[in-house]
Amino acid sequence: MKQSLWARLAQVGLLAVWTCVWLVQGCGPGPGYGIRSRTRRLTAMHYKQFFPNFSENNLGASGRAEGKITRNSERFNELVCNYNTDIVFKDEENTNADRFMTKRCKDCLNRLAIAVMNQWPGVHLRVTEAWDEDGHHPPGSLHYEGRAVDITTDDRETEKYGLLAQLAVEAGFDWVHYESKYHIHCSVKADHSVAVEKGGCFPGWARVTVAGGVQKSLSSLAAGDRVMALSGTGQVVLSQVLLFLHQDHESWSTFLSLETEDGHRLALTPHHLVFLSSHCRLDSSEYEAQFASRAKTGDCVLIHTAEAQVRPSRIISVSEEESVGVYAPLTEAGSVFVEGVLASCYALMDDHRLAHWAFGPVRLLSSFNHLLWEETRHEPLTTDSETARLETHRSALAVKDTAGVCANNSTLETRGHPSEAPRMETRGTQTSDVHWYAELLYSLRWTFLDSNSFYP
């Protein structure tokens, strides 16, 4: 009992020391794959281009329309009024209708207003249309719900609009369309949408590689397992899973699916980080961690080979799909190869290096526990056949074979697309869980970092 109490006090002490150092430094080294993080270069959008590359009402963009809001409806209370003095509201109806919008739309618009002033000193953002109560738009328009705005700059210089559209993407609008030569159309998901919940994850059917080259689904992965990852020096290593930042066995979520020219298919939530580059080079230091929502056809990702090397692979399609289970393993290395594609363990914040550094206390405590009790948290993988029996046993606990799921040399395979995997039942007493340390860091985000560093 005394030893356990002393150990807990030591853990708290380590956390306190690390937090103090964090407050003093504000940023730290962490694995950057050989480089310091670079400022992303803004590229102006082209006329008629929209981002992401889905239709506006697609779940991967702003989502379905939910019905018109009028001043007399109960849902009118969901709208907020935007009195930001840095934004010029056209308000041609003289009813303040253009100031009404959802909270998410207001937050994105206010971020964009700051970005416009930073980009063009003396220039302000101008809103020509927001909530529509007069029926000026086609049926189903998100303007009727306060989820869409049409914007320009107040100097009305149309040559700025391509870059304005890209700034709107950076500000967090869920769909941006360079719709007209005279304005940009932007929209957002509904405030209560599941798609805007916190967290970034992979689906339960997604597989990682463990010791011996064995494939294991995330739904059967456990803390202590060692999975294939990329070290800070760019080497493929087996890295221990310390814990799950998010683990929900039953929820259905929308994932972006990135398919590469080599047949790899990575599914992850839009706000999870994946390593991308516009050039397919071998040097892993050329790849920058970016939100999956920024991935586009032609970008390159890193995949691992059978010889435990990395090589680039070009993305040939970006689509969206729904699947069961959300899992976010945290490894010692801070990265993980999922379905053979390198991804970060982190989400929501666009700086992988800083996120990895912020989780330093977790790694320290893991090492401390290992030294104190001389225990290993990973499973003893003695033989491939033994691992195969364990994986077969675990997969038997799932709902079986509506999509043709089978176990073959401990690799879960599907006849057809992986997203067709069956709905998995909750095993034992496991429940949905977001790790407390991740929640703590997220709750402190605005105190120490600029809001633009986070996924809106």
UniProtKB/TrEMBL annotation:
GO terms for cellular component: endoplasmic reticulum membrane; extracellular space; Golgi membrane; plasma membrane. It comes from Gasterosteus aculeatus aculeatus (three-spined stickleback). Its main location: endoplasmic reticulum. GO terms for biological process: cell fate specification; cell-cell signaling; central nervous system development; gliogenesis; intein-mediated protein splicing; protein autoprocessing; regulation of gene expression; smoothened signaling pathway. Ca(2+) 2 binds at residues 93, 129, 132, 134. Multimer. Zn(2+) binds at residues 143, 150, 185. Keywords: Autocatalytic cleavage, Calcium, Cell membrane, Developmental protein, Endoplasmic reticulum, Golgi apparatus, Hydrolase, Lipoprotein, Membrane, Metal-binding, Palmitate, Protease, Signal, Transferase, Zinc. It is found in: Endoplasmic reticulum membrane. It comes from the Eukaryota. Belongs to the hedgehog family. Residues 1-26 form the signal peptide. This is Hedgehog protein.
